[in-house]
Amino acid sequence: MDTIVTLTEQEKTELRETQQKLQSLVADMLTPDDFSKIRQILQKAIVNGTLQRNTFGLHPILFDMQTAAITAEEIGLNRASILAILLHDCVALGEVSPEYVGREFGSDVAHIIHGLSRVNEIYQKNPSIETENFRDLLLSFAEDMRVIFIIIASRVNLMRQIKERGTEEERQRVASEASVLYAPLAHKLGLYLIKRELEDLSLKYLQPDVFYMIKEKLSQTRASRDAYIARFIEPIERNLQAAGLKFHVKGRTKSIHSIWQKMQKQKCKFEGIYDLFAIRIILDSPLEKEKQDCWQVFSIVTDMYRPNPKRLRDWLSVPKSNGYESLHITVMGPEGKWVEIQIRTERMDEIAERGLAAHWRYKGVKDSGTKLEEWLKDIRSALENQTSSDEQLMNQFKVDLYSDEVFVFTPKGDLFKLQKGATVLDFAFHIHTNIGCHCTGALVNGKNVHIHTKLQSGDQVEILTSAKQLPKRDWLNFAVTTKARNKIRQSLNEQETKNLAFAKEALDRKFRNRKIEPDEAVMMRMVKRLGFRQMNDFYRSIADEQIDANTVVERYEEQVEREANPQLFTTENRSADGFVRTLTDEERGTASDVLVIDNNIKGVEYSLAKCCNPIYGDDVFGFVTINRGIKIHRTTCPNAQRLQEQMGYRIIRARWAGKGGSQYCVSLHIVGHDDIGIVNNITSIINKEKSVLLRGISIQSSDDGLFSGTLTVMTDDNKQVNQLLKKLQTVKGVKSITR
What we know:
The structure is a single chain. This protein is α+β, with helices and mostly antiparallel strands. It folds into 5 domains: 9-206, Hypothetical protein af1432; 216-365, 2-Layer Sandwich (Beta Polymerase, domain 2); 491-570, no CATH class; 591-656, no CATH class; 664-738, ACT domain (Alpha-Beta Plaits). Helices cover 49% and strands 16% of the residues. The protein is built from 26 helices and 21 strands. The strands form 5 sheets. Strands 1, 2, 3, 4, 5 and 6 form a 6-stranded mixed beta sheet that branches. A 5-stranded antiparallel beta sheet has the order 12-19-20-18-21, with helices on one face. Helix 1 (9-26) packs parallel to helix 3 (60-75), helix 20 (482-513) packs across helix 23 (549-564) and helix 21 packs across helix 23 (549-564). The protein is globular, with a radius of gyration of 34 Å.
């Protein structure tokens, strides 16, 4: 990054204009003393040269002022938020201390800056939101609602300015984050204009051909569209005026992103999308007459045009959790075209445009800041559940943000709100975890239904429980809410822990009854001989009564005898079927050679892909996974083509930096005549090879007199592997052997 020395002439002009605009927006919030103190702090930072341009070369002071202007004008936040935006860089760079900010500007400002600093620290660790830091990022957001608003405003500001800045990869990363996280956040907070802009700009950077195609089509059809809207509105305006209503009408074209989504959903071209616009009737009504006037407009419009009853959306009676209030209807207009009409008041429209923050401007309206507390609790609940992977958490988060809502009632008439698609089981966990864990079904509108029944708005639900009921794994197939899924997983984990402990205790009791003190190493070998890879799988089979504990004790005694007298358990000319050998950890090598990743960067953490087991000397490439770092694959990997075609943007270059004496795991597939003698010859050749260790061998016979299996060896590089393949191919009875 370049240290800021001077502003360009264009930046000076933009800074003056933005400063004047911001001062006019916050003149009633900030005092002259506030402006004076901020100017001194920023001038000091410029003189000291501590402020730096960001990745895209944007001037931090200008960028923060632009973000503050967006926050004030398009969201409507107050003094503390504006000051926090202007000061957070200076606090992070040590120009002023948090204590100074708290003392001079108030503890509220210092608190918001602390939240912004946490988010910035996370981004400095890893710029991608789909990483192990994602959990911390959400926690930072959930601490203070104003931090969410500010971060969204900052991302809108950045998206507006990066068209010709940075690399294409950086632009796509920023656009992807905006699409995955920030647009859904804006939607949930009711910032519909900002959400629409973020989605459109994301599409512009991620799929420019699609974006400009739809934009050009909209431009070409604008004249005919405007003419149709005018013909449609004219009689409505005449009848509303006759009714004595104060109003104005707006026609709004759908966003480019939403048009593209419809094209994909309906699998049609642009010309196949008919509802490209919506009409908005906005009333100037006093608070006490808002609903009455909206329903009067509904009556007038539906008398003129035939409505579609399936498309009625009543968010007047029960507003959305983000405060959105409106009445949506779809009617048949001239020329047989369906037209969506949104009916709302000036107050409702400002809330729809600017989100929850707009509520703070209206006295007499209950503060809706608490309406998101439920949502924030769900986020915190998911964050506290450490059993979910970050990818699972991301998916849960996106589902919760995008879903619509259903409203259901208890037998006493209490109203509860759930996401669309929620089942009886989700509702049970929503009421209380204990009720969810023991839920057996429900009475929905007086009818007995199963726990997986989906609920509809208006349902009256009485949950049925049984003390004998416990969560089952298949519950995860139909539970959709974050809380229910987290609690089910938690309960299943607790049940399994208890069952495994019970199985272990039962087996220990059998051994004690026979006065046997089992040796752990012998026990492990016996478990592997029974076909289990993990001890938990072994104990689970005992808990599920697939294996009897008495049988296990007998197998253990047999294993002891087998190891003490191996000659009693050998036979001549036996089949190779079932031959398995796994070496101990002491016999295994490790892979620690250094790779050069991407632009000659060493020391980056990576792991070798299990699907192709790359070794020193192979041609390789790196693949950036979502939550497991960089995976190294061979260029001939069976998955290589799919990864490059579907996720080429996550492919990075990689090459071996030097040979450091490490060993690598290689799997060889072998086919031969079904004779244990061949297997012995193969293992003998491998054992004679220098720097080649046999790690394991697994053989299965077929009906045609052949066996097939896998040899796992540790070796230094691909040259040794090629030499070993040549030698093994000469063994009599070996049909083929490949890596």
